[in-house]
Amino acid sequence: MKLQGKVAIVSGSGRGIGREIALKLASEGAAVVVNDLDAAPAEETVAAIAAAGGKAVACVGSVTEAGFAERFVNTAIEQLGGLDIIINNAGYTWDNVIQKMSDEQWQAIMDVHATAPFRILRAASEYFRVQAKKEAAEGREVFRKVVNISSIAGTGGNAGQANYSAAKAAVIGLTKAMAKEWGRLKVNVNCVAFGLIKTRLTEAVAGSDASIDVEGRKIKVGVNPDLLKTMEAMVPLGRGGTPAEAAGAVYLFCIPESNYVSGQTLLCGGGFSI
């Protein structure tokens, strides 16, 4: 129970990796604000946490909508009594080669992966500042945690993902800047860059009709089975990771043992990097 008494917000935590992050943090004692675009998966994650003896509430909505960041942060403070951990996880891919990529595709991916984390951190800044000042006056050193989610596309680029690669590289830059800006507030700001993790976005799909709905947009998902096998063969550990394994990497940056680690990017890809 290394996170007993802590409060965490996890964007995009109704499904996949985000859900596993929320469950992991809750299993270690944190109260969690669960977020998803849709109410049903968010409430399901909240119910799973409650069934395991934890505490969670839902904050449904798009991380890109005006005012969401403030609502997300305030849900933690007002309903759970504080804010100690921020996980910027929400996102999706919308791929194309650059000559076929629209301005809408570019901006949508930048908004969800780069602008939304910026807004959430900005919304939390006043609370973090006030709490840090109070704790310093009391002679206490209390660490808070931010974990931003990037990708090996952000560390090394990926063909057909100019938008996603640029956005995920921006996340790393944001992480480094905020580690320096918030160090005085005792806030550790780190980043986890995922490799091949098996989720609904990367599962093997033989046809071309698999898609998800994101705010009225039909986004193609899935990977050709043969391509997926090739991708897995390139991973030194021999397979794609599970959402639970991805959550484990995020958890490392949330516990007290990482209190003197900040501004770092951890690759969680089974040994594979580009």
What does the model show?
The protein is α/β, with parallel strands linked by helices and 274 residues long. It has 8 helices and 9 strands. It has helices spanning 16-27, 39-51, 68-80, 103-137, 152-156, 162-182, 225-233, 243-252; strands at residues 7-10, 31-34, 56-58, 85-88, 144-151, 187-194, 211-214, 217-220, 265-268. The strands form 2 sheets. The chain has a 7-stranded parallel beta sheet, sandwiched between helices. Strands 7-8 form a two-stranded antiparallel sheet. A hairpin with a 2-residue loop joins β7 (211-214) and β8 (217-220). α1 (16-27) crosses α8 (243-252), α3 (68-80) runs parallel beside α4 (103-137) and α4 (103-137) runs parallel beside α6. The two termini are 36 Å apart. The model has no long low-confidence stretch (mean pLDDT 95). InterPro entries: KR_dom, NAD(P)-bd_dom_sf, Sc_DH/Rdtase_CS, SDR, SDR_fam. Residues 6-188 form the Ketoreductase domain. Belongs to the short-chain dehydrogenases/reductases (SDR) family. It holds the Pfam family adh_short. This is SDR family oxidoreductase.
